[in-house]
């Protein structure tokens, strides 16, 4: 009763890996609440609160006229929702179970499953939240028209993927300097409140301000998402290739760093001083 059968064929190993990843993803979704529907509802409420806060802020400050000509709610969603997806992916990956976690004592479990389950659960919850919000806006407020929905959705996936890449870098560094990494994560989240460009239109910014933001892949992603969403907006200062290449490089570095960390992992790292 204390032995498990190990699959030997490649396909059996692959499907076993998928099964473990699925169950770990379900566990991640239900960490917020025991009921998965309530967990998704909480994510939707968080997104709606962000949108409502920025909606009233734009109206209060009188900066709504600076937005792109078109549906103002879509303008807010292309900024706020991509920001939330990126930041929540960073946080989810950074907080995954490391090589010294008690979860790793279970035979089918490993750090790759933990990372993938965190990434997929975040993508699942944010995708459902986005579809529900768009459906409510389309049916209750006004019909929604996207200039290029495939391109806009690709930017949503890129925002999530780049967040996973940044979170993977922080995850690899966390066992070596947990306090420093926690501070870096907090600085990154707070800096992206402004540096992501979700409150600005890149084409309307002076060149010296664009140079202050164009290092940030999320700045390019949000501006490109608005270019795909609105028929009359053409991004001049950004592109989607840069965040894609940056994501791939960060994933490579994060994977190498996680592999090195796992080789030198020690249970004593988690001991309290």
Keyphrases for this structure?
0% strand, globular, single chain, mainly alpha, 273 residues
The major beta sheet can be summarized as:
none
Please, what is the average pLDDT?
A: 80
Q: What distance lies between the first and last C-alpha atoms, to the nearest angstrom?
A: 38 Å
Please work out how many helical segments DSSP would assign: 9
Helix content percent band: 55-70%
Global outline:
globular
Structural class: mainly alpha
Q: Determine Rg (CA atoms, Å).
A: 20 Å
Low-confidence stretches: none
The total strand number stands at 0
Percent range for β-strand residues? under 5%
SSE order, as H and E?
A: HHHHHHHHH
Topology:
Elements: H1 10-29, H2 36-61, H3 72-94, H4 111-141, H5 149-173, H6 178-195, H7 207-213, H8 217-229, H9 241-263
Helix pairs in contact: 1-4, 2-3, 2-4, 3-4, 3-5, 3-6, 3-8, 4-5, 5-8, 5-9, 8-9
Report on this structure:
The chain is built from 9 helices and no strands. By secondary structure, it is an all-alpha fold. The longest helix is centred in the middle third of the chain and has 31 residues. The two termini are 38 Å apart. The model has no long low-confidence stretch (mean pLDDT 80).
Brief digest:
The protein is 68% helix and 0% strand. It is mainly alpha-helical.
């Amino acid at each position: 009763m204390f032995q498990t059968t190990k699959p030997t064929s490649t396909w059996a190993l692959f499907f076993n890996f998928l099964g473990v990843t699925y169950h770990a993803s379900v566990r991640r979704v239900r960490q917020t609440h025991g009921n998965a529907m309530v967990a998704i509802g909480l994510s939707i409420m968080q997104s709606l609160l962000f949108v409502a806060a920025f909606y009233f802020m734009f109206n209060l400050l009188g900066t709504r006229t600076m937005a792109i000509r078109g549906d103002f709610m879509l303008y807010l969603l292309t900024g706020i929702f991509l920001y939330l997806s990126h930041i929540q992916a960073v946080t989810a990956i950074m907080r995954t179970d490391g090589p010294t976690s008690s979860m790793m004592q279970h035979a089918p479990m490993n750090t790759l499953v933990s990372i993938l389950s965190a990434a997929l659960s975040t993508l699942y919850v944010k995708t459902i939240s986005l579809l529900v919000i768009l459906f409510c806006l389309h049916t209750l407020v006004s019909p929604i028209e996207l200039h290029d929905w495939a391109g806009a959705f690709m930017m949503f996936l890129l925002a999530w993927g780049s967040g996973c890449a940044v979170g993977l870098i922080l995850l690899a560094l966390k066992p070596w300097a947990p306090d420093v990494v926690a501070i870096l994560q907090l600085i990154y989240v707070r800096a992206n409140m402004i540096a992501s460009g979700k409150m600005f239109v890149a084409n309307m910014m002076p060149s010296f301000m664009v140079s202050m933001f164009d290092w940030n892949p999320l700045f390019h992603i949000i501006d490109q998402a608005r270019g795909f969403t609105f028929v009359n907006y053409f991004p001049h200062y950004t592109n989607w290739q840069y965040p894609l290449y940056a994501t791939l490089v960060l994933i490579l570095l994060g994977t190498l760093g996680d592999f090195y960390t796992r080789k030198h992992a020690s249970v004593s790292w988690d001991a309290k001083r």
